[in-house]
TrEMBL record:
Keyword check for Chaperone: no
Keywords carried by this UniProt record: Iron, Iron-sulfur, Metal-binding, Methyltransferase, S-adenosyl-L-methionine, Transferase
The protein, known as: Radical SAM superfamily enzyme YgiQ (UPF0313 family)
Species, as recorded: Mucilaginibacter pocheonensis
Cofactor section: [4Fe-4S] cluster
PANTHER family the UniProt entry points to: ANAEROBIC MAGNESIUM-PROTOPORPHYRIN IX MONOMETHYL ESTER CYCLASE-RELATED, BLL1977 PROTEIN
Residues covered by the Radical SAM core domain: 156-377
InterPro entries per record: BchE-like, Elp3/MiaA/NifB-like_rSAM, Methyltransferase_Class_B, rSAM, rSAM_horseshoe, rSAM_sf
């Protein structure tokens, strides 16, 4: 059977603010995960529109499309195109799960929730000639899932081909997050068996890994055995975790020993009222600075996530947030305009209050204001969002942030990582155009390698005497 799998490009692909590098980071892991359930005899063509021109002139029997909120309209068009040609088209992913009724007219079958239970079920029905219209996931397990079809991924087109997920979901329930809506009807947080996760890691070439898990430290027992198992594997990796998990126990030390070098942390807001509004209880009364210092003492760089536009925000929130990030040496910051995704608690609250201003999903890219604001006008919010990015990534602020670290090596890493990510757009574009992106991996691995501290000076000591190459393992 000829199977076409498509990740349509997000709408931002046509925006003047489009940063090709941001969308050439990760391969389509969800689709490669599903491909593992197809037969070895199937002829599979997996296309990611972020990095390649879609070929729509082919004639597959089955078309599988992954739908995110801001590629939804494009996904529906592609689906209609293939249905008109007689292919059997199926749609799934986050947006289909949030709005199945919207997606259904464009598909022969739709899928609600994760695919590991319902996709193989569909394939059996499809082969028998009796596929159902709707498949709803209820069995949540990652036990005995077949190895991801990484052979279908065009590795050279991505900066981070080694992306991996070893858990699904998250133990928390923030009201702006997709998590509860997507995993409704079953377990909302579950992990792989440690041995399976280690085997998957072992299959990945090179040193660098990026864990795309929502919360890599979310299950302490699993994370402990994972990091213990990874200790001898000579990997460097990045991931995401919450403030409270960094402060609790010694899991973060174990992660650092296993190779964690950079962490995405959801600080989101400094206002307790905002935290309550977004049900982000795990951040309440937590000392953000203590979490930051703990990460820095372990040589871990921080990508801080912040959201603007919660009801307690005022005009000063942008400056406060940027200044805090620079002062505390946050390496990179990701800012978002609060976005109420359909299906989330936040969306339902705002809908009830009559605050949703548009349901044009193309605008739900976390850069535009789509709801009635309270403490700020929509214009102030969008202007403040763009100001914050510009301000945080000014050379002077990158320099200032870097210089806050004690260790000389950490200063350099911070400077190169933040500067490299935001300041060399034309270089990134050239590498993407010439399909050389993957060749920059060794440089990334170098920046992410371990900082060597002098033992007698403790973990935060400055290794000033060391020369540049000696600073990196
Ligand atoms: C990688 C990633 C990206 C990549 C996406 C491209 C890519 N190559 O995948 C990039 C960097 C481009 C990106 C950008 C953004 N992202 Co993003 N991203 C992720 C991330 C971290 C991992 C995705 C992943 O690989 N998951 C693992 C795989 C195995 O799961 P999966 O893809 O969901 O696939 C499974 C199911 O969905 C299902 N499935 C999917 N498709 C189909 C189709 C069929 C037919 C079937 C049967 C099943 C099925 O089966 C798969 C196996 O279970 C997720 C968080 C997360 N943990 O998922 C956020 C996430 C998707 N991103 C998010 C956001 C907010 C963004 C941005 C807006 C951020 C920003 N401000 O720029 C942008 C734009 C996204 C948009 N407009 O929708 C939100 C989405 C919220 C929402 N409701 O849409 C998420 C969920 C993070 C979060 N916790 O809030 N992102
Ligand atoms: S901690 Fe992060 S992933 Fe978990 S529910 Fe909150 S926003 Fe979502």
């Amino acid at each position: 059977m000829k199977v076409k799998m498509i990740l349509p490009a997000l709408t931002e692909a046509e925006s003047p603010f489009w940063r090709p590098i941001k969308y050439s980071l990760f391969p389509p892991l969800g689709l490669a995960t599903l491909a593992a359930y197809l037969s070895p005899d199937d002829e599979i063509d997996l296309q990611d529109q972020h990095v390649e021109q879609l070929n729509l002139n082919d004639t597959p029997h089955l078309v599988i499309i992954q739908v995110y909120i801001t590629n939804a309209y494009r996904a529906y068009k592609i689906a209609d195109h293939y249905r008109a040609k007689g292919a059997y088209v199926i749609l799934g992913g986050l947006h289909v799960t949030s709005l199945p009724l919207e997606a259904a007219p464009h598909a022969d079958s739709i899928f609600i929730g994760p695919g590991e239970d319902i996709f193989p079920m569909f394939l059996t029905d499809f082969k028998k000639g009796c596929p159902q219209k709707v498949y709803r996931s209820t069995i949540r397990t990652l036990e005995k899932v077949p190895p991801i079809r990484r052979d279908l991924i065009k590795r050279h087109l991505y900066l981070v081909p080694n992306s991996i997920v070893v858990t699904r979901g998250c133990p928390h329930h923030c009201s702006f997050c997709y998590k509860d809506a997507f995993f409704e009807g079953g377990r909302t947080f579950y992990t792989q068996e440690t041995d399976d996760a280690l085997a998957e890691i072992d299959r990945l070439p090179g040193r660098h890994l990026y864990f795309l898990d929502d919360h890599l430290l979310g299950n302490a027992r699993f994370a402990t055995s994972l990091f213990d198992g990874m200790k001898g594997m000579n990997r460097v990796f990045q991931g995401a975790a919450t403030v409270d998990s960094i402060l609790r126990g010694n899991l973060i030390e174990k992660a650092a020993e296993a190779g964690l070098r950079s962490l995405f942390v959801g600080f989101e807001t400094f206002s307790p009222q905002n935290l309550k509004q977004s049900n982000k209880k795990q951040n309440l009364e937590k000392d953000y600075v203590e979490a930051v210092n703990r990460l820095h003492s372990l040589g871990i760089m921080i990508n801080g996530s912040f959201v603007f536009g919660l009801d307690d925000d005022d005009k000063d929130v942008f400056k406060r947030t940027v200044d805090w990030g620079v002062k505390h040496a946050i390496t990179t910051s990701t800012y978002h305009v609060l976005t109420p995704y359909p299906g989330t608690g936040l969306f339902n609250d705002m809908e009830r209050q009559g605050r949703i201003l548009t349901k044009n999903w193309d605008l739900y890219d976390t850069r535009k204001v789509v709801y009635q604001t309270v403490g700020l006008s929509a214009q102030e919010l969008e202007d403040g969002y763009w100001w914050a990015y510009k301000e945080f990534y000014k050379w002077s602020n990158i320099f200032k942030g870097s210089m806050q670290h004690h260790a000389h090596a950490h200063k350099l890493k911070h400077f190169f990582y933040a500067g490299g990510w935001k300041k060399f757009e034309s270089v990134w574009n050239f590498l993407i155009k010439t399909k050389n992106l993957n060749n920059t991996l060794p440089a990334l691995e170098t920046v992410l390698s371990k900082i060597t501290f002098k033992k007698d000076q403790g973990m935060t000591a400055i290794n000033e005497a060391a020369t540049m190459p000696a600073l990196f393992e």
